[in-house]
Queue: 3 jobs
Job 1
Amino acid sequence: MTNRIAILGSTGSIGKTLIEIIKKDKKNFKIELLVANKNHQELLKQAKFFNVKNIIITNKKSYSELKKKKISDIKILNNFNSIDHILKKRLDYVMSSITGISGLEPTLKIIKHTKKIAIANKESIICGWHLIKKDIDKYKTLFIPVDSEHFSIFYALKGNNIKNIEKIYLTASGGPLNKISKKKFKNIKISQAIKHPNWKMGKKISIDSATLMNKVFEIIEAKKIFNLSYNKLDILVHPSSYIHAITKFNDGMIKIILHDTNMKIPIFNSLYENNDKNIKTDKLNLKKLNYLNLKKVNREKFPSINLIKKLQDKDTLLETIIVLANDELVNLFLLKKINFNDIVNTLLKLIEMKDVKKYRQKRPGNLKTIIALNDFIRKKINKIINKYD
């Protein structure tokens, strides 16, 4: 049976990996929709290869470039307003991997149109999980997390009850700056911050790995996805990235989930869950197993981890603010308007401001509320940054 799918963020690292998996099994898939932001050339190449009839390119300049080509057999759109018209029959699988908060709206729009959704967008889960959960329950859509850590927890929990969890440990490689002295952080260049030792990732997530903000996000995600309290979650530094999650149960049993440092594995399993499909992977790495080198995080070197102590078990807008602020600060670092240390230092300063602090007691609202908060936070950050100049 042919599986009908859509890929939101098909030209990013997650989307490209999924495309490569599907290429090897092309006859069993029909891609109904591809979505990208700027890379219109890659998007068009993908659409032609898979004979896709509908594509969305959100960047206006890229959209104009595509429209100039006057392609008659592909419907080219610039927004998500037509999803209901495009997807008249329910899909079998959707990958949602658009980066940033801009990934939330299309995720919410497409849930009702698919039997299964795999989400690889931290911002959507953190800022809009209450909205996502409501829709996946309403439309009986199966949700699978794609981040290697959360997929590992998902995998470990098969046949187990969440109530039986004593503690979950997420692992962090320590990122590209793990062996660099904290004294040198101020002068870290973009090229250093994005040079991850284990994973091939985009610039944004690589910098989040360098500050360890990605682990803060993953703790928040795990809390939301698996409905856990923060005291049941912790982080261990594990430079080789072989182990992805350790789950300790109340009965004394411990599950350690490990796999190669290759996102193809969780993506493949999200696509072929419960199917008799095989993926070629490396042999068991005894060298890594014999030297796991697990350690607690150095909080002085990576102060972003201290943000977790400020979070409450009840959902508040503080989690959303942390994501939105970090998104803007990383962008400013990439634009060379702030230095590396400013990313976390400015964020810590921002959440203590009087007109921001009040959001710690407010519950997350609808999509419009989140977008409005995003505009507010970006303006606040740019005011702070302007004082640095």
Note: The mean pLDDT is 92.
Job 2
Amino acid sequence: MLLQLKNASKWVHVGGNKAFLLKDINLNVFEGEFISIMGPSGSGKTTLLNVLGMLDDFNEGQYFLNDENVGSMKDKRKAQIAKENFGYVFQAYHLIDELTVYENIETPLLYQKVSSSERKALVADILDKFNIVGKKDLFPSQLSGGQQQLVGIARALISKPKVILADEPTGNLNSRQGEEIMQLFKKLNEEEGVSIIQVTHSESNAAYASKIIHLLDGSIEKIENL
């Protein structure tokens, strides 16, 4: 088991009452799965993704990552284990405007104290894999939306995470660019065994997964196996 949530709930206090963002979530994620999370606005999709990615805490329940209890970890250990296991892809790309494509992709390796020669080799390899060698000295503002998202995915993959967590990864792209990104995810999942959990409102994007989790009002309404 890669990830496991047991009766996980998250709430905020509104006028003295609990407003649940997530309620009694039970979820098992196995290595190599491709999962889509769907639901109407406000159903808890991004909150669930953030809890899984350890970007957000929960109030109640348990979370196990590789059979290790996340809830009992100290913050330093949490940060370390998140870096080792997760790559994040966002709708808004979150590239650093002042850095070139090369520097953006290299950034996660700097935090992991990877040697200069190894960084060069890893970045060169991923630039080649994504066919963006010719863009390496450009800045994000000089790229199309699809190219920026490719750089975002390359950056997420550079440290070889076990899981890619993607929040509306094609939300700002046209349909052709969006399809290219989804094909890339499918390839990463099938050929390299990267587990992928994506939040999407697009039924066609969701269908790339092997399992769809439908959320409603913070609870899992149903799980659909494809």
Note: The chain has seven helices and ten strands.
Job 3
Amino acid sequence: MWDYTDKVMDHFRNPRNVGYIKDPDGEGEVGSMACGDVMRLMFKLDDQGRIADAKFQTFGCGSAIASASVLTELIKGKTLDEVEKITNQEIVDYLGGLPEQKMHCSVMGREALEAAIENYRTGEVSTRKLEGRVVCVCFGVTEKSIRNAIEENGLTTVEQVTNYTKAGGGCGGCKEEIGEIIAEILGREPEAGHEEKTAEPAAPKKLTTLQKVRLVEEVIEKEIRPEMAKHGGDLELVDIDGNNVVVKLQGACAKCEMTWFTLKGLIESKLREKVSEELVAVEEK
């Protein structure tokens, strides 16, 4: 289980500035549903060219939600020239740190901000386009993104690049090339065959249907329901159809405008963390 700071947990449980801005001056979206993380950032400028309001919508883990929440707080009241200087490390520092394996969430926040500024200045579609040659096909990570992460954060290993960008976290076929990029930037010879000093992760154990059902029920009872109860909400487990966990939101959560956040940001995120990364939370209609 990840070791989160109190500030990360606070921004996950009580995210600031969640929502949507009608007719935003800038809007950017990064990530993809296929990768498991999507972040959308919107801002509105005042008459002095400062960010008067900022909102976000995130589909992802607690670190992604916390990173986006903090980012909206950091950029309010600043000019675009000022917020362009914000780095992913500033987001991490503000949160008191993130697990190494979750650093890509802070990078995604910074990239969403860049996309929103680009949208404001050019009028281009807000979804950030891939710039340059794609190195990691699994997660759509380009050589430019990998180089930026290495240079801006002083990365020296493939494992670190994966933590910051997700590149190499799928099939692993691009790890050798990532090692060559690192070697080029650091001015050293790539390791022969790019043998990382870390063991390959063990394949996850396949759950039986009964095991999956019991684990889902346990996580709902012990971790999800108590969290929803804090806000006057509840849920009913309706069905488990393959990897689809069908639930019915109840109480305050059934009437809340942020049901999507509850469904994806809390329920699905927690089930993926505790049971299986393949699970998808679906609301009964």
Note: The chain is about 45% helix and 20% strand.
